Amino acid sequence: MSAMPENDETGPIHRWTPLAVRIEAVERFADCAEHVLTVTDPAWSDVAQDYRLLAVNSSLRRQQDSIRAALLLSRHDLGHLAVAFVRAALDDVMHLRFFASLDLDRSQELFASMSNFDSLRALLAQRNYIGDTEMARLSYPNLSLTGP
Questions:
Q1: Cβ distance 132 to 142 under 8 Å?
Q2: CA angle 68-72-76, nearest 5°?
Q3: What is the mean pLDDT of the segment spanning 124-131?
Q4: Strands, DSSP E only, in the chain?
Q5: How confident is the model at residue 103 (pLDDT cuts 50, 70, 90)?
Q6: C or N terminus of the chain, fewer CB within 10 Å?
Q7: 3-class state of residue 15 by DSSP
Q8: What is the DSSP-derived secondary structure letter of residue 102?
Q9: d(Cα 118, Cα 95) in Å, to the nearest integer?
Q10: Taking each helix axis from N to C terminus, what angle separates 52-75 and 104-137, rounded to the nearest 10 degrees?
Q11: Position 51 pLDDT exceeds 60
Q12: Do residues 131 and 123 touch, judged by C-beta distance below 8 A?
């Protein structure tokens, strides 16, 4: 078995690199990424032409926030909880790759359909939680799936 190399804080990160050094490296990366990549609000006229722009913007913001949250958790010895951010990152990559593979018209149609489905699903969940009477009080139309 080979001896573990002495840690050089300017060298590459390995599995034997102390946690504090790893956290510092990720922090430097996050600072650099935020300096190089400034995520601003997209122009809605551009988004109307290609909804994928909004998806990429949202994904970049979430990734930046996730890295910062993971760093904060790690600094408080709760880094194991940051694993939850990995699933969202992988979901973003998978969805963005899929949408990029579609032609623009199909992509637009699928985004609109998914948006409508998510909205309806959220509305039905709210209805299931607060009931029809409260939904009517909030001025929602009758959402009965069996008819009026």
A1: yes
A2: 165
A3: 92
A4: none
A5: very high
A6: N
A7: coil
A8: S
A9: 15
A10: 70
A11: yes
A12: no
* Cα separation, 59 vs 19, whole angstroms: 27
Rounded distance, CA 82 to CA 53, Å? 27
Angstrom distances, CA of residue 145 to CA of 77, 96, 115: 49, 33, 20
Give the DSSP letter of residue 17: S
What values do phi and psi take at 112, rounded to 5?
-65, -45
> How many other CB atoms are found less than 10 A from the CB of residue 50?
16
Average pLDDT over residues 89-99: 92
Q: Is the pLDDT of residue 93 over 80?
A: yes
Alpha-carbon gap, residue 25 to 84, rounded angstroms: 20
State the pTM of this model. 0.69
First-residue to last-residue Cα distance in the chain? 75
Residue type, 101: S
Sign of the dihedral through C-alpha 33, 41, 69, 125: negative
